[in-house]
Structure formats: structure tokens, C-alpha cells
Amino acid sequence: MKSLEENKTNKLSRRQCLKSMAFASGIFTILPRHVFGGAGYVAPSDRLNIAFIGTGGQGMINMKNLLWENDVRIIAICDVSEEAGYSNFYYAGYGIYKAGRGPAKKFLESHYAEDKSYKLRTYIDFRKMLDKEKDIDAVVVSVPHHVTAAAAMSVINRGRHLYCEKPLGHSVYEARIITETAREAGIATQMGNHGHSSEYFRLACEWIWDGAIGQIRQVHAWGKELIRTKNKTRPRGWRERRPVPVGLNWDLWLGPAKYRPYHPCYHPYHWRDWWDFGTGCIGDLGCHHLDPAFKALKLGHPASVEAQTDFNNPETLPFSSIIKYEFPARGNMPPVTLTWYDGNKPPRPAELEAIREMGDDGILYIGDKGKIKGGGHSESPRIIPESAMQAYKCPLKTIKRVPGHHRDWLNACKGGEPASSNFDYGGPLTEMVLLGNVAQRTGEKIEWDGKYMRVTNIPEANQYVQSYNRQGWDLKNI
């Protein structure tokens, strides 16, 4: 594999061209672009060639979002599965019933049907794709959590821009090394917590900074349990060897994880239930629902974390949990307790009118002058009761607005400002979220040294700070 510096040099000329084209298009506006190439025309030199690692449910959602942008061209895709069914999962709500290389290829070829020069390349191993496809400018990674770090580091090590689904890795350590390596590489990054780019997210932060509810010492956030079975037992025969579906490369699907026989309880969706592959409800939703509190309250590293769980074992995640983070004072902000509820909800606040629901997902800020309640991703934040909201004079908008989560990243790829949830932000957020899983697996209150990434009071808990990697999957050399 070429060194990071060699890859950065190889990409330099195209990156300079993209930047210069963006600069030029802001100056020479006498003639519209359609004069040169039809309505919506984008010169090839101003277009981003994008590859996908992972074309499952979330990969297909990201693909559809990016294809709204006329300066994007998807030239290569990679997935270990030829086709899998997703109709039983929430992706069906997005019109995605099948996914994998085959459905993604069919979708893209239909999208580019009028472009006779279009030729999509498909791969099973993302390392081969990244080494062979020299024209890739940027990559979208949407894979199971245990493979996220390997895929992301492969992209970073080759100097390509990166959009990576949350969480940034399977462990606290993986989130840290991805963040640091991406910063060193100088690439444009964005984590896939799309609510971060919303108007709602910004409003919640601006109100809190304005002192709308005074100093905040408690935050409660909760997520709907979407992923686990309800009988609180592992599937029967889960260790039995089952026939691997046609078109699925099971060894590559396992990636860095320890080998185990294929079973349908892992692929394509329920891998989230298993410690070796997933990060549970908090890993799935914490980077969404805890995001506005992390930003607004400038949280950083917690001092301690503890978890209560209803069911735990070495193989599968608990079916419900309450995770409590304690943060020290930060600047002029007091210490704060942040509590996450998975499969539970906090007590209903007295200020919430009887006709209003708590909701399956949400966040509640408790200040010494009032309370703010929002939905998942901090959607529709409101001071409660509504009479207090109506009496509040909203402050001026001080946080920069962005034209969309994917567009924000594309602009950064073309030399613009860093995306709002770039890894320097998304990485520390992920570390905080995944530290909750360390507490769940430990079963005791842990005290955390964020700088040195270690549990200080229970040494054996540190085994959960870093994930296992099979031989050949070393992150620094992948």
C-alpha cells in the first residue's frame, strides 16, 4: 500500500482543480452554465467521483440523498452481499426492500441511463476497490459497526475524503484513531448523524446559550428500542452452522471480528444485537439524540459513567438500560448529569401538557429556570409548558446554517469550510456514546481518563475500550 503522503500527492492535482473551479464559478458568472452544456450542466473537472462501501439499507439511503446533487457521480460500489431483503426493517419506509450490490447496481444504472458513457464498477472487497479505482475523490462508508473502522481507515490511508455512518467505529479506541488519522490526512469528513445539520439542532443550541432555561444540570435522552427481539433469549441454534446465502462473502462480512459460522440472526440486520458486531441502541441512536446536548453544553469527556441493565451476557447486548454520565464543570457551565434511556423513558415532566406525548425518541433539558423538550435528533424543540415558549423572545441566529448534511460534506470536499459534524466533532461525540457500552459490559461505575483513554478505577474494564481485530485487519496498515 502506498504511504499516506504518496496518496495525498497523487490526489493533489485533482483537488487543486476542484478548488480552482469552485473559485472560478464564483467570479465568472456572465454566462450561465447551461450555455455550455445544458440545464444543470456540471463540468467533469468540477464533479466529485464517489465510491460506496456498503450498499445495504443505510448505504442505499445515502446513495439516494447524494444523487440529488448534480455535481456527484457514483463510479464504484462495494458490498460483501449480492442481495439481501430489507422489507421487514424500517428501510422499507424509504422504499428500500432489497439492497446489496445487485439492487444498488440496478438503481444506479437506471439513474444514469441517459449517460451512455456511464460504467459502474462493482467490488466485494473494499481494499481492492480503493487500490484499483484511482479516480475516486470521496467515499461513503455505511457498513456494520464492527467493520466501520477498517473501512474508514482504508479510505483515510489512501487520502480520499470520507463520509462515514455513525458511530465512528465499534469502540472508543476506534473512534479516537479514526479522528486523529483523518486530521493528519487533511481530508474532508462528515459523520452520518444527519440531524446535526438541521434547523432544530441549531435552535436548541442557540436557546440554551441564550439562557432560555438558565443553567442546565440535568439532561435526559431516550431512544425507541428498534432492534432486539423481545423474548430476551438468543436465537435457538445460533452457534449452528447454517448455509451461507448465495452471493454473500461471509469471511469478508466478519472482517476484523472473530470467526463464527453464518447464522441469519446476524445478517443483514440483527448484527446490532451482538457485542462482536454492534453497539446497541445507544450506538445506533446516541450519536443522533445526544448530539444537541453534546454541542450545546460543550460536554467533552465525562468523569464517570454507570449503567443499569435488565439483561446482559457476553454475547448479546442488554434489552434495556439506563446509562448515566457525569460531566465536570466546563467554563461557566456547571457540572451536569446526562442520562440515556434505552427501552425506557425518564419521568414525565409536570410542565408537559396532558395532550402532548413524550414520544418514542427525545431529549429533555432541565435548567434552573425551566425545561426544553425535543424529539429525536432534537426535532421540534419547545420550552415547556407552551405558555413559556410563547413568552420567550428567541435570540438572533448565531450558528451557521448549512444546505443539508450531504451537501455540507460535498462543499468541504471541494475546498469549502469543514463540514459541521466533521470527525473532530463527531469523533469525541462517538467516544462519549460508546463509553456507555463499556459501563454496560463492566456492570459497575467507571471513572474515565479521557485524555489517556482509560478506566482508572476498574482496570479490567479497559478490555472493552478497544475492539478485537483478526489477523490481517490491523487498522494502521489496512
Give the low-confidence spans.
1-39
Output the radius of gyration: 23 Å
What number of domains? 2
Q: What count of helical segments does DSSP give?
A: 14
Strand order of the largest sheet: 15-14-13-9-12-11-10-16-17
What structural category arises from helix and sheet content? alpha/beta
Could you explain how this protein is built, in words?
Helix 6 links the parallel strand 6 and strand 7 (161-164). By secondary structure, the protein is of the alpha/beta class. It has helices at residues 4-25, 34-37, 57-66, 101-111, 126-132, 145-157, 172-185, 199-209, 250-254, 280-289, 291-296, 386-391, 405-413, 423-442, and strands at 48-53, 72-78, 84-85, 98-99, 121-123, 138-141, 161-164, 189-191, 216-223, 304-309, 321-327, 336-342, 362-367, 370-375, 382-384, 446-449, 454-455. It is built from 14 helices and 17 strands. It has 2 domains: 4-195 and 409-422, NAD(P)-binding Rossmann-like Domain (Rossmann fold, 3-Layer(aba) Sandwich); 196-230 and 267-399 and 428-464, Dihydrodipicolinate Reductase, domain 2 (2-Layer Sandwich), CATH 3.30.360.10. A 9-stranded mixed beta sheet has the order 15-14-13-9-12-11-10-16-17. A 6-stranded parallel beta sheet has the order 5-2-1-6-7-8, sandwiched between helices.
